[in-house]
Design a protein that fits this description.
With 193 residues, the chain is mainly alpha-helical. The chain is built from 6 helices and no strands. It has a domain of 101 residues. Helix 3 packs antiparallel against helix 4 and helix 4 runs antiparallel to helix 5. The longest helix has 32 residues.
Length: 193
Amino acid sequence: MRVRRLFLAVPTALVAAAGLAWLTSAAASNGGIDGAPQIAQATPPAATPPAAGGPERGPGPERMMPKFSPKSFCEERIARRVGARAYLKERLDLKADQMSAWDAFQKAADAATAKEKARCAALPTEMPKTPPSLADRVNRREERMKSRLESIASVKPTLLALYDKLTPEQREVLDRPMMGRHRGGPGKHWRRG
């Protein structure tokens, strides 16, 4: 019975000592707890100069994350899509008889991209100070989904026509899911090889 108490007492004492050590070091670095002894410094720490060309930022999440720009985010998404098409064209290694189908697809995709660029241009460059209401968020999401559905509908016939002209090896490239898309919940990714 005594040995068991010893096995319980030693870890409990170690945890208590570690907690006390953490509390005192945290209290000293935060300026102390009311009534607790504080450690004096010989000289105060020197203030770090602000970054060249920019305003001085204080601690907090603003310092860690850049300001979000809906317009820039939208434009970045479009640029990635355009880049993915260029990558896909190179990856498919199209033959001369397949180029007319690719050109039709490219023309339809460029038209859809132009419409989306116009939508991006109307977005604000900074987030508003007050968060949008639930109704505003739902309406915006509905607009984005309608826009995306229109883009898919305008490109789909030319994409399927291109797919019909591809060899089985080329189709395999398109049949693999896109890299980085989340499918099936967190932690599950389908990747394009």
